[in-house]
Amino acid sequence: PTMRLDVVSIFPDYLAPLDLSLIGKARRDGLLDLRVHDLRDFAHDRHKSVDDTPYGGGAGMVMKPQPWAEALAAVAGSGAEGARPRLVVPGPGGAPFTQAMARELAAEPWLAFACGRYEGIDERVYEYAAQDLGLEVSVVSLGDYVLNGGEVAVLAIVEAVARLLPGVIGNAESLVEESHEDGLLEYPVFTKPASWESAPGVTRDVPTVLLSGDHGAIARWRHQQRLERTAARRPDLLHGSQAAPGSSASGAL
Ligand code: 6GU
User: Fold this and answer.
1) Is 116 labelled a binding residue?
2) Which domains does the chain have, with CATH numbers?
3) Quick one: which atom of ligand 1 is closest to the CA of 140?
4) What are 40-88's pLDDT values in tens digits?
5) Which of 33, 61, 227, 230 could hold 4 in an S-S bridge, CB 3.0 to 4.6 Å?
6) Where is this protein found (predicted)?
7) Which of 147, 152, 161 should be mutated for ligand 1, with most atoms under 8 A from CB?
8) Residue nearest to atom 2 of ligand 1 (CA)
9) What pLDDT was estimated at residue 177?
10) What is the ipTM score, two decimals?
């Protein structure tokens, strides 16, 4: 089953990393059908303008509705008869993008991404996409900071989604023992050598329990590390409203 992804941007070159590594391999293997589109191809004035000044005043520029409407209509109408993509619009004003949302998006057959720049896209484009094109529109944010545009967010979202698709990651077990899959951060990991000389006369040792062969003791140590690490770095996951009911985050307390 191939997942289709369309990305519309004024900087299509920003999406070049999607040719690389696991995502590039997934595309070559036919697991992902990823198409990048240049928004300027849908701007028809002499200067191919995609932005203008905001009504009501204020800083910066706003993306014009017409190029976006044409681009989204072209993408939405390019699939099988009756098929429609789910439209994902990255922006700092969106709902938080989480591992749960990555799982939800990974279950869709077709996603389209609209990368805004400047102060954002004319609000009527969202209405048009929903009402005239029949798209489910989801505005999503990576976190509480501001990026210049949606392109880097799309790189992150596509990577988070694509790695959940069957066949993209060789070892599917590595997907279950991960941060954010059960509400706790991951335990620290170590590899050889057991004693590492990081500077002359300075050795740093792997915790002895990990060399003990006592699988029960190792599991308890790792769980304790996860709790301590989550409390130190992400206390919101332990008592925030984000913890899923019945997750081991709440169950462990
Ligand atoms: Cl998804 N887009 C933009 N432009 N800025 C962001 C973001 C997304 N998430 C956090 N900041």
Assistant:
1) yes
2) 3-162 (3.40.1280.10), 181-251 (1.10.1270.20)
3) 1
4) 999 999 999 999 999 999 999 999 999 999 999 999 999 999 999 999 9
5) 33
6) Cytoplasm
7) 147
8) 91
9) 76
10) 0.93
Residue 58 near residue 66, CB atoms below 8 Å:
no
This prediction has a pTM of 0.92
Assess contact for 111 and 161: CB atoms under 8 A. Answer: yes
- The atom number, within ligand 1, closest to the CA of 90 reads 1
DSSP 123-135: THHHHHHHHTS--
Matching residue, tokens 């077990």: 173
Strands 32-38 and 51-52: unpaired
Is residue 138 packed enough to be buried (19+ CB in 10 Å), middle (13-18) or exposed (0-12)? middle
Who lines ligand 1 at CB under 6 A? 90-92, 94, 140-143, 145-147, 149-150, 153
For 114, list phi and psi in degrees, rounded to 5. Answer: -110, 110
Among 115, 117, 138, 141, residue to substitute to test ligand 1 (most atoms within 8 Å of Cβ): 141
Q: Decide: residue 63, CB within 10 A, 0-12 exposed, 13-18 middle, 19+ buried.
A: buried
